[in-house]
Amino acid sequence: MTAWLRTAAKGFCMGAADVVPGVSGGTMAFILGIYARLLHAIRAFDLSLLALLARGRFLDAARHVDLAFLVALGLGIGSALAFFTRVVPLPALIVTSPEPVYAVFFGLVLGSVVVLLRTGAHPGATQWGWLALGAALGLAVVTLVPADTPDAPWFLFLSGALAITAMILPGISGSFVLLLLRKYATVFDAIGHLQLSVLVPFALGAVVGLMLFSRALSWLLDRFHRQTVLTIIGVLVASLWVIWPFQDRAYETVRGKVRLVHSSPVAPSGSASEIALVVTLAIAGFALVLVVEWLARRRGGDA
């Protein structure tokens, strides 16, 4: 498999994660080892890019923004969104079989926390506070109660900006933010039916949010790397609260479709075979992260 196809496959994983409320595409980017590269590529859309384009140096401009990487990643994400909204309705599977779906992602996130702590973010005695800060921030977000919101273009714009910010921040799900804003059904129905009146303001908000937040987060990683990574790990730990497979879930019918609007962790329940399946899938997700991290170390970095 070529590097381009591997990047597209990673994008597909990110897109699949973003469809699931409580799972972040940024988390998947962290797990797959492309997070820093993604932030730097987004940040490269700057005045230097405009100068290169103005001088007709299109190849240099493409290299400046790591265009091949972004195109491959974008195609993978777009393919996942289309696949899991049109072919395999993952949001519906979350309603009908939530425990197996969340079990996989729980294992993935837990594994990523272990890998991050083991491979370069070991907190010292004075830095546990950053980890605690991230956990507190993450819990504050994932335990919010959904609110009523308007369908006006300006709010769709704001929803896009907030959702994309969550999507690139490991541990906080863009889909979960859309649920909090009561725009999950609106946006994913619009994706499935190409409703431009919804998608255009949402996409514009996403572009603005992406440009602003990626720069802020990249700046923090460049200047306060250890503290920022520890805070992000804390957010990842907090996300396990909402990704825990066994939840007391509340659903609501939105536009004729059942949507998850609230959940809280409970003790494992069900038959022995059902619990065994959930545990097995969680272990598989955990092991997959360890295998990916091991392969990345053998190759000496990302392709």
Account of the protein in words:
By secondary structure, the protein is mostly helical. It has one domain. Helix content is 73%, strand content 6%. It is built from 15 helices and two strands. It has helices spanning 3-19, 25-32, 35-43, 47-54, 58-64, 67-87, 90-96, 98-118, 128-142, 153-168, 174-180, 184-193, 196-223, 225-243, 272-299; strands at 247-254, 257-265. Helix 10 (153-168) runs parallel beside helix 13.
How many angstroms does the end-to-end distance come to? 11 Å
Quick one: overall form? Answer: globular
Low-confidence stretches: none
Report helical residue fraction: over 70%
Strand order of the largest sheet: 1-2
β content, as a range? 5-15%
Q: Main β-sheet: number of strands, strand sense, barrel status?
A: 2 strands, antiparallel
Order of helices and strands: HHHHHHHHHHHHHHEEH
Number of domain modules? 1
Number of strands: 2
In short:
With 303 residues, the chain is mainly alpha-helical.
Keywords:
single chain; 303 residues; mainly alpha; two-stranded antiparallel ribbon; 73% helix
Produce the secondary structure layout.
Blueprint: H1 3-19, H2 25-32, H3 35-43, H4 47-54, H5 58-64, H6 67-87, H7 90-96, H8 98-118, H9 128-142, H10 153-168, H11 174-180, H12 184-193, H13 196-223, H14 225-243, E1 247-254, E2 257-265, H15 272-299
Antiparallel strand pairs: 1-2
